[in-house]
Amino acid sequence: MEKFTTIDEYIAAFPADVQEILQKVRETIKTAAPQATEAISYGMPTFKLEGNLVHFGAFKTHLGFYPIPSGLEQFQEELARYKAGKGSVQFPFNQPIPYELITKIVNFRVTENLENAAAKKKKKK
């Protein structure tokens, strides 16, 4: 597995059609969480805001999206048509990528991370 240091490097490693999807997912996340920072974590593009927010990655036949279990649980009805794991969901490349749903999940995760961070700071006082 290649070691990437930036999301740009990661995206550049894929065919043009997949690059287009990855770039649009990246922009979707950036728009929903403008205060989040980009990183590579677990070898995948990651957005961080008071901890890991979401990860995503390209595979042979699908886009993997990793909003940790809470992001999946909150939207389980809308995600029911997709193959999912404990903290991941697969969006097949041969179907439209649900960018609006990704936005909703990211918005949920932003709120969740900020609330958790605020609760931790309150505890320390």
Q: How would you describe this structure to a colleague?
A:
With 125 residues, this protein is of the alpha+beta class. The protein is 48% helix and 22% strand. It has 5 helices and 6 strands; from the N terminus they run ααββββααββα. The protein has helices at 7-12, 16-32, 68-74, 76-79, 99-124; strands spanning 37-41, 44-48, 52-58, 62-66, 83-84, 89-92. It has a 6-stranded antiparallel β-sheet with strand order 1-2-3-4-6-5. A hairpin with a 2-residue loop joins strand 1 and strand 2 (44-48). Helix 2 (16-32) crosses helix 5 (99-124) and helix 3 (68-74) crosses helix 5. The mean pLDDT is 94.
Write a short abstract of this structure:
By secondary structure, the protein is α+β, with helices and mostly antiparallel strands. It is 48% helix and 22% strand. Strand 5 and strand 6 form a beta hairpin.
Determine the number of helices (DSSP H or I, runs of at least 4 residues): 5
In total, the number of strands is 6
Q: Output the helix-strand order.
A: HHEEEEHHEEH
For the residues shown, what is the average pLDDT? Answer: 94
Measured between the Cα atoms of the first and last residue, the distance is 44 Å
User: For the report, how would you describe the main beta sheet?
Assistant: 6 strands, antiparallel
Strand content: 15-25%
Structural class computed from helices and strand pairing: alpha+beta
Q: Looking across the biggest beta sheet, what order are the strands in?
A: 1-2-3-4-6-5
- Rg on CA atoms, Å: 15 Å
Poorly predicted regions: none
Helix content: 40-55%
Q: Quick one: overall form?
A: globular
